């Protein structure tokens, strides 16, 4: 496991690069990263130099050039690179979201139903999600768990949505464990 300490800004930029690279499957232009993280393209170029020095990104020269994350970048952010990850659907305000996948669901305070929250870790940007938005996660591959909730907060750096759980269901008896 990597022990590279990244600044919050570096984490945000590297996460954006990984997400954009996953969508484009090609080199990502600094301007696209700048747009994604709402920063100046010059700031992105400067940060990319430090990320290159840490061997977390590689530069791709030429007109179709840009940046690509290295395997070390995935390790540094603790992102698993999977060839064919199981798909866990996500709906945002009733609309299916195509370019994200749910990686992990953490439930907190389940012993206190009025305060029950879920942290939804996703591969993809959480930038378009706002407090009060409706989100449905699932069904998950094995237990067929479906969580419906309202966005209570988000962590843009970690790509985490924090949901106030409105409803949670898993069918009884026919799970595929």
Structure overview:
- With 177 residues, the protein is an alpha+beta fold.
- It has helices spanning 8-24, 30-37, 41-53, 71-76, and strands at residues 57-60, 66-69, 90-92, 95-96, 101-108, 117-123, 134-137, 146-155, 160-169.
- A seven-stranded antiparallel beta sheet has the order 4-3-7-8-9-6-5, with no helix packed on it. Strands 1-2 form a two-stranded antiparallel sheet.
- β3 and β4 (95-96) form a beta hairpin.
- The longest helix is centred in the N-terminal third of the chain and has 17 residues, at 8-24.
Give the SSE layout.
Layout: H1 8-24, H2 30-37, H3 41-53, E1 57-60, E2 66-69, H4 71-76, E3 90-92, E4 95-96, E5 101-108, E6 117-123, E7 134-137, E8 146-155, E9 160-169
Antiparallel strand pairs: 1-2, 3-4, 3-7, 5-6, 6-9, 7-8, 8-9
Helix pairs in contact: 1-2, 2-3
Task: Give a quick rundown of the structure.
This protein has four helices and nine strands.
